[in-house]
Design brief:
This protein is α/β, with parallel strands linked by helices and about 575 residues long. Helix content is about 50%, strand content about 10%. The strands form four sheets. It has a five-stranded parallel sheet with strand order 2-1-3-4-5, with helices on both faces. The longest helix is centred in the last third of the chain and has 26 residues. The protein starts with 5 loop residues before the first strand and ends with a helix.
Length: about 575
């Protein structure tokens, strides 16, 4: 069945995967579609003019609303405003509101009301299986009742990307799979808007939460992704930099900031020279940002300044430059640096008590943290449901509400449960995909060990595949990558170590082979670019392994007891 109707699809970026699946189904019916990601090359000039022309030439404007809701992104709202003006004409195009699976309708929202009621299409199930609404949509577009859906298929997840991240965080590019933190993301955007508008305020956000609360994902796939999509007027043109402090946070600034600011070679050299000086000023980072520009600097896992960096001077230079850059030009609205920190809640006392010396007047850090801190609380029941179900829906699959609620209830039993949740969902997805039918069942969830056992089961599987000699090497590697904290208020932390520091040169090949097997199993992460001559930087994928992998937790406790025994023997010898 063909159609003379030309259709323009309007959507929000996070809903792209669902929209693409809908577009494929409509194209099978012979309907001519315009979807910007498919029809406009990324390097084509005058994109807005092209979009405006396509809307004017269209007969039908599909206003798609998905789980992300109606966003304020420039293109999304701009396209809708053009369609509204054309709709006002007697011969204008027709708008059909399409609510995708997982979309929530707020009948009091004026933007929803403006779309009308009679012509709505609301997919309750996955798009591919909701034939009733597909028939209704095709009829609304073409004016004809379709006899059948051409080559209709309920695609199993076998050919789809797994939308769950396991122990990895959601990065800026993963925003289309990142659900459950929409309200908190909106709150962060409001805070950024406030700090750039407010005179006399500090441009600093400190995201504080327990290990496993999702701080990195919220900062990257939530806040930074939204700002890059112009959640604030002009924010798509700001500069962005993401760094982890590591063992040398000053070097991390030198490695990241010049490229983020697109500095020339001379300015790069000057920036590095200033920060490495014997007594570097606190103004180096602030001065590097050109007038009129804004830099959003995310320092992820800020606690590494204390757990991995042992040099107090390096700590001081890093912290003072960061705080000065976020404080400079307080009396104007054109401050250049907006600093965003993610910090484990058991390290806030170390930042609050840090002795700042190079800033005059010295800032009141405890008061600063208190005013800039945003606590990352555990997800609510509704947020967990969204985080569990909507990524699957966005690929055209569905877990089913009973299974979703069972997983959600399990997640609410554990503190810092998000890594456990993502591991279980990733493993459940892979298990059901292997079955070929794409059915997500309670039986499959129980088979993978449910939430509490999935991580330990997956880690044990990788470990058990090693030979006896390789298992001994693995134990040594893991224990070298854990920082055992003497302070009872502070949980153990992970650290990154070069492969060359883990073993002797003659053993590097054997140890490197084990490390790669553990990395392939998702337990370690390696960065070969950080080393030379086959060397690489290694660290544990996530601190959740310390808590929920029984084998590793046992090793750590054995090591801790061994250290205590050595201390007791040494103390006894000294007393004698």
């Amino acid at each position: 069945m063909g159609s003379d109707a030309r259709v323009f699809i309007n959507y929000s970026g996070p809903d792209l995967e669902q929209v693409k699946r809908l577009a494929k189904i409509l194209e099978r019916q012979g309907i001519e579609l315009f979807l910007d990601r498919e029809n406009i090359p990324a390097d084509q000039p005058e994109v807005l003019a092209k979009l405006a022309g396509e809307i004017r030439d269209a007969d039908v404007f599909l206003a798609c609303v998905g789980p992300a809701g109606i966003t304020e992104s420039t293109w999304h709202s701009w396209e809708q405003s053009i369609a509204a003006r054309l709709n006002a004409k007697t011969d204008g195009l027709r708008t059909i509101p399409v609510f995708l699976p997982g979309a929530e309708i707020d009948e009091t929202d004026p933007r929803i009301l403006a779309m009308g009621v009679d012509s709505r299409i609301h997919f309750k199930d996955t798009i591919a299986t909701d034939k009733q609404n597909l028939f209704a949509l095709i009829k609304a577009i073409t004016g004809q009742e379709p006899e059948k859906l051409v080559e209709m298929e309920n695609d199993p997840p076998g050919g789809l990307r797994n939308p769950y991240r396991g122990l990895k965080y959601f990065d800026v590019a993963d925003t289309q799979w990142f659900y459950g933190r929409e309200r908190l993301t909106d709150r962060l955007i409001e805070r950024v808007q406030t700090v750039i508008d407010q005179r006399g305020g500090i441009r600093l956000l400190v995201l504080v939460g327990a290990s496993g609360s999702g701080k990195s994902s919220l900062a990257r796939a939530g806040l930074l992704a939204a700002l890059r999509a112009e959640a604030i007027a002009g924010s798509q043109n700001w500069r962005y930099a993401i760094l982890r402090p590591g063992a040398n946070p000053v070097q991390a600034l030198i490695d990241i900031i010049p490229d983020a600011l697109n500095l020339g070679n001379q300015d790069k050299s000057f920036f590095a020279k200033e920060l490495r000086a014997d007594a570097p000023p606190a103004t180096v980072l602030h001065d590097a940002v050109r007038g009129g520009e804004k830099l959003v600097l995310l320092v992820d896992q800020f606690e590494e300044v204390f757990t991995l960096c042992a040099d107090e001077k390096t700590q001081r230079v890093f912290i003072e430059n960061l705080l000065y850059a976020a404080n400079a030009n307080q009396q104007t609205t054109d401050g250049s640096v907006i600093a965003v920190l993610t910090l484990r809640n058991d390290f806030t006392h170390l930042l609050a008590g840090f002795p700042v010396q190079g800033m005059r007047p010295a800032p009141d850090i405890p008061a600063m943290i208190d005013s800039c801190q945003i606590t990352i609380a555990p997800m609510s029941a509704d947020e967990l449901r969204r985080a569990i179900r909507l990524p699957a829906l966005n690929t055209g699959c569905d877990f089913g509400l009973f299974l979703v609620d069972k997983i959600r209830q399990d997640a609410q039993k554990h503190e810092g449960a998000l890594p456990l949740l993502q591991v279980a969902l990733q493993k459940l997805w892979n298990t059901c995909r292997a079955n070929g039918d794409g059915a997500f069942t309670v039986e499959a969830y129980e088979k993978i060990g449910e939430l509490a056992g999935a991580l330990s089961q997956e880690a044990d599987k990788t470990y058990d595949e090693l030979s006896e000699e390789e298992q001994k090497i693995a134990r040594h590697v893991f224990l070298q990558l854990v920082v055992r904290q003497p302070d009872a208020r502070v949980q153990d932390a992970r650290r990154s170590v070069m492969l060359s520091d883990l073993c002797r040169a003659k053993d590097r090949e054997r140890v490197g082979t084990v490390v790669q097997k553990l990395a392939s199993g998702g337990l370690l992460v390696t960065d070969r670019a950080a080393g030379q001559d086959g060397d690489s930087r290694i660290e544990i994928m996530h601190e959740a392994l310390f808590q929920y992998w029984n084998r590793l937790r046992g090793w750590i406790e054995e090591e801790r007891e061994s250290l205590k025994e050595h201390q007791r023997i040494r103390q006894g010898a000294e007393d004698w």
